[in-house]
Amino acid sequence: MARIVVVGGGIAGTAAALALQKAGHQPTVHEAHPESDADIGAFMTLASNGMRALAGFDAARAVAGVGFDVTRMSVLDAAGAELAAVPLGEHDRPLTRYRCLRRAELAAVLRAEARRRGIGLRHAARLTGVTETGGAVTARFADGTTATGDLLVGADGLRSTVRAWLDPDGPGPAYAGQRVFYGYSDVAPSPAAAPGLITMVRGSAAAFGYLVPPAGRTHWFARVPGPPLGPGERARTAPARWRALLEPLLRPDRTPCADIVAGTGDALMVTDALHLPPGGRWRGRRTVLIGDAAHAASPATGQGASMALEDALVLAKALRDAPDLDAALARYEHHRRPRAEQNTAASARLTAARPAEDTRHGADTRRAADGGLDRALLRLLDWNTPL
After folding, report:
1. What are φ and ψ of residue 358, in 5° steps?
2. H helices of the chain, where?
3. Quick one: which of 11, 183, 294, 327 has the fewest CB in 10 Å?
4. pLDDT of 199-231, one tens digit each?
5. Predicted TM-score of the model (pTM)
6. What is the CA radius of gyration of the chain?
7. In DSSP terms, which residues pair with 199 in a beta bridge?
């Protein structure tokens, strides 16, 4: 049994702790934010590969209790004509169907499951430094405390403090060329969307997506090319102003997108699409990165959380199956880096394309739709199949 210090208590870190405990280790999770950190309202789709990873460490059933199923994707052009209709997920396996849920809901479910299993979670523990030796690794926190273990897992996101220590000369976060708007509207699309359908619109000025849950408001997002947000711009700009900027971009198209945005009140948010250029270092002697800390992609493929969950499962299997720590970390990177960087590249291509031309990248869209599930990946995500 190894003592494992997990830095970051979001989706990647908490999932890693669950998987590592199942592999026989003793993880503790250290999160920089207070437990009362507010949900900013972002929703996400969790793909079948992410649900399969959750199933590997026995958390899929808990996650399936929140959000709603997404079973099909329709792709429309700016005139409202359907370009493609793609089934999503594994319909005959309820615990591996696509889920739409708020990001904070997923994190909360995983934290509750970790507490139920007796995993230590400490909040308001902001990492300030790492000391790695041949026999141990120690994390130092802003409150003066430390945590020592056999391995440190950096799951602290796009602006990872662990990555900055591990790879100080490596690439950092970069703007991916789009602003991302998202919100919740009181206007349902016309014609009405079928249950379980996500509609992707390749509009003339924005890429747009919307879902209608069984109960509640229409969930939507828009990716708009342009310059990044200026310093403090997000904080000082009211939702009405964002709505006034976005709606005219959508109004020329013959789709319901402009009406959906017009029907959105204060539940409208905007952020920059960021990514982490590939090629950075993932591991040291007793330190390893997972999730966005290692391979953040722009949001176009919608695979960020699912990739992090895959990381958690594969890292746990590597530590379970390899003869020593160095071999385990090498095996983890061998299995994860090509797939993660393929997703980063696919998302970058979709982000770089003009919105109306996204359909050129049909292979990327379809791969994102099914999570790239094939026999090799299914074996990788099966807990009982050795690496």
Report:
1. -55, -30
2. 11-22, 48-56, 60-63, 103-116, 161-166, 233-236, 239-250, 257-262, 292-295, 304-321, 325-352, 362-370, 375-380
3. 327
4. 999 999 999 999 999 998 999 999 999 999 999
5. 0.94
6. 21
7. 74, 210
